[in-house]
Design goal:
Radius of gyration: 18 Å
Helix content: 40-55%
CATH architecture of the largest domain: 3-Layer(aba) Sandwich
Order of helices and strands: EHHHHHEHEHEHEHEH
Strand content: 5-15%
Distance between the termini: 21 Å
CATH superfamily of the largest domain: HAD superfamily/HAD-like
Structural class: alpha/beta
Number of helices: 10
Number of domains: 2
Length: 243
Amino acid sequence: MVLKAVLFDFNGVIINDEPLHQKLIDEILVEENLRPKPGEYWEVCVGRSDRACLKELFERRGRILTDAQLDELVARKSRYYQQQLQEIEKLPTYPGLQDLIFQIRAAQLKMGIVSGAVRREIELVLERLQLTPYFSVIVAGDDIKASKPEPDGYLLAVEKLNQVYPDLGLEAANCLVIEDTFAGLQAGKRAGMQVVGVANTYPFHMMQRCSNWAVDYLHDLDLARVRAVFAAGKESPAGTTPS
């Protein structure tokens, strides 16, 4: 099986913004006369869409939201996020991101983003980082109802890449997923893809238990070795460090 596409998560892989998201979720709760609880954000929200996160946080407090109410909360948080980004002069990214993108482009592999984030947030960050031309498709939280760990986003990315490149003949087994959370890694696996767990959000040993490939940093990922495993028609055993 040939590696044809690399699919990136966004928050926690492209941009280091998890603390900002936690701050904004807490603000939303306070505005709605609800109290944030220590550790709850990491339990409920990390790796999931804002929609899924807010829905569960409110349900835990006995408030069932209508679709319209949930839409308003997600839109409000997105406005806050975009406003905060405008105040940050240099966006925080992760070591090795630019080098890995260069390797992928040199190998002539397609790239996409699969995230629960709002599309405009993703587009804004990619524009600021000058990465927009490199990602052929974006699957955002606006595009799918089911949040990770459901595989819907990754399966939709395959469809979209085949639409953009009709001769690509892309299947899930041709894709490598790069994720930083358990929900994301599970989503990639459920989609039938091999997954890289990068220790940006959780420790390396935890990523190692949940992924085919585990790395401390993006620049530790040896793309040539990963491609060789795909070409041999094998699936990397869980926990392999491709470096």
